[in-house]
Amino acid sequence: MAGTITGPVTFTTAGKRVPAYLQDPLRWPLAGGWDALAAGTHRSRPDNSGNAVPPYVPRDQDAVIRARLTRAADEGGLVLVVGESTAGKTRACFEALRAQLPEHRVVAPVGGPDLLTAVEVIDRTTARCVVWLDDLESCLGPDGLGSALLAELIRLRIPVLATMRHQQFEIFAAPETTPGASTEHARTAIAGARVLRQLDPVQLDRVWSADELERAGEAEDDRIADALTHHGTYGIAEYLAAGPALLQEWHRANSPGGHPRAAALIAAAVDLARTGLRPPTHTTSSRPPTSPTSPPPADRSCAPNHSARPWNGRPDAATASPACSCPPRTRTPGTSSTTSPTTPTPPSPTPPGTPPSGTQ
Questions:
Q1: Which CATH code of 3.10.450, 1.20.930, 1.10.10, 3.40.50 fits the domain covering 20-203?
Q2: 3-class DSSP state of 66
Q3: Backbone phi and psi for residue 303, each to the nearest 5 degrees, phi listed first
Q4: Which of 2, 92, 248, 256 has its CA 20 to 30 A from that of 341?
Q5: Which residues pair with 165 in a beta bridge?
Q6: What is the pLDDT of residue 295?
Q7: How far apart are the first and last CA of the chain?
Q8: Distance (Å, rounded) from C-alpha 165 to C-alpha 225?
Q9: How far apart are the C-alpha atoms of 109 and 22, rounded to whole Å?
Q10: Per-residue confidence at 359, pLDDT binned at 50, 70, 90?
Q11: Domain map (residue ranges) of the chain
């Protein structure tokens, strides 16, 4: 005799191993409380509280995205937002999802096979669910999202919210046959093209409109104010997202196994910019990089870098840099280690165009 079932319920599909994160829809996050970074939103510079997600500035296409998402929740189907990298696609979709479907459970399948499994699991639950596909191209294909699955999503009235970079959209929207393509690649391209031809994507521009910039000016956030002042030819979202990523890459270059010379050159470029100089900068304006702007480890410029390309075919030359301001290293006869002279001697100025010592 059937009774009341309490607690989490795990769904299985015949002959398939269901990934753990897909097994229980009641463990999927509610859209209203979902985390923006978990959704795939780019990190920005953290504020004083440590929050790396700035306040949302409404975009011109918000009303269109939200209206289509509401309709998809009633009728099923896929809402696709297309734009360039860092145009703000993921954030706009995330905010639309939180605003329109806050009580829906969100599932974000990893790849086409997991998408197929997720649809089967949703079909067996009474929970209201929405499928989140950031970077849709990873799920397109005969083993994932094809025309048949899109029809099934509409039949089951399952809403899908997806993003896609403009470049990837153009690749899949190209003619169905590509000369020289492998059979598997051709099948994926054909399946993806047939799906995209059934959609009317929402275009989100990377460069913000005058109305969007005006709304950004009303936001009480130092990061957005800084982006408004300095974004130049770049979009606001692009400026907010690119800065932290580039800063992390710069810091990683100073780590063991990184690229200390590249980090030193960037430090020198930052110093030149802070003095008010703007590119192009002649090489005679550059000095050996001893930048106070970065937190370099000890002896960063002249640390041995055995992965560096040897100068003039000399492997031992890869342990020193012509841009280094440290005293030249000397090799003690009979040993394999390098030592510095007891009394450092500053390097003498080198006329422009003169090759580094030891390369002639």
A1: 3.40.50
A2: helix
A3: -65, 140
A4: 256
A5: 83
A6: 52
A7: 92
A8: 27
A9: 8
A10: very low
A11: 20-203
